[in-house]
Specification:
The protein folds into two domains: about 5-120, Rossmann fold (3-Layer(aba) Sandwich); about 125-230, Hypothetical Protein Tm841, Chain: A,domain 3, CATH 3.30.1180. Helix content is about 30%, strand content about 20%. It is built from eight helices and twelve strands. The strands form three sheets. Strands 7-6-5-10-8-9 form a six-stranded mixed sheet, with helices on both faces. The relative contact order is 0.15.
């Protein structure tokens, strides 16, 4: 039975890349659902799937985040993982879809939950903006702020994995050095830069379009934007990447994990030498396929 993946907003559930990828369950905000109903729904979810991995953005309203922790505390369940992700909205949606794909694999739920931190490093999330004057998620120089006031100026910004900012026409964003697909969320900005310039320079192998997440204009500081995220689409590559990391056992809750922190209880591993290490490196070539 697959691990249940849950989200806090419906626009974090991208269309599946194949017919097998399951959907995600929506965890409603407090204003949309009484606490009693939230407890009952979550209890049913745990009983049905065994484990729940809930992914939510770092920008979620405080009341909604508090609701998640309240439900887990009242249920006294160690089978609910709450993963707070500091990625742009479309990047969070991409990560959620990858976890949905992995939920069908033969990984323990603890592996799936802790894999979120690993997979985040391979998501190149950014946007094309008409202004960076209100952008506070990525370092912006005074010179770039001044250029924001020039009519017609546009900026390419990368927030993850490493912050970058360029003025369109005066540089390029450094992209992934491994094969990816690109998903694009169209805002109110009219431009073909993402599809005609960025995608070829990053040598993406496929382009998808989706609705722009509702949170994106606030996250990027302007509605005149196009958000994008390059990601690993192939489940066999995701499986190989996660399986290549040494597995550990959480000393606090006993759940199997990868990396240096448990996805369910957030406890860190003790000595550095016990932390997982990635043994393979992604390249533009096709990694050896491994059954998922």
């Amino acid at each position: 039975m697959p691990t249940a993946i849950a989200v806090t907003s419906p626009d974090l559930v991208l269309p599946p890349t194949d017919q097998q990828t399951p959907t995600a369950t929506l965890l409603q905000p407090p204003e949309a659902q009484p606490l009693g109903d939230a407890l009952a729904d979550t209890q049913v979810l745990v009983e049905q799937y065994g484990y729940v991995v809930a992914v939510y953005p770092a920008t979620i309203p405080a009341a909604h985040e508090q609701r998640l922790h309240t439900v887990r505390a009242l249920l006294e369940s160690d089978r609910i993982a709450l993963l707070k992700v500091d990625l742009p909205p479309l990047g969070v949606a991409v990560l959620v879809r990858q976890l949905r794909q992995l939920s069908l694999c033969d990984f323990h739920p603890g592996i799936i939950a802790s894999a979120a931190r690993l997979l985040s490093h391979y998501i190149h999330a950014g946007a094309l903006l008409n202004s960076v004057s209100r952008l506070d998620r990525v370092p912006v120089s005074l010179k770039a702020h001044a250029k924001s006031w020039v009519p017609g100026a546009q900026f390419g910004v990368l927030a993850n994995p490493d912050p970058q900012l360029i003025k369109i026409g005066s540089g390029e964003l450094t992209g992934p050095d491994f094969a990816t697909h690109l998903v694009i969320g169209q805002g109110t900005l009219q431009s073909d830069w993402v599809t005609e310039t960025l995608a070829p320079s990053w040598r993406v192998q496929g382009v998808q379009e989706c609705a722009l997440p509702a949170e994106s204009p606030r996250w990027w500081g302007t509605p005149k934007m196009i958000e994008f995220a390059a990601f690993l689409p192939d489940i066999s590559v995701l499986y190989q990447l996660v399986a290549s990391v040494r597995r550990e056992t959480c000393g606090w809750c006993g759940i199997e994990l990868i990396g240096d922190r448990c996805g369910f209880c957030s406890a860190p591993l003790g000595p550095p030498e016990s932390r997982g290490r990635v043994t393979g490196t992604l390249t533009r070539g096709s990694p050896t396929r491994q059954g998922a």
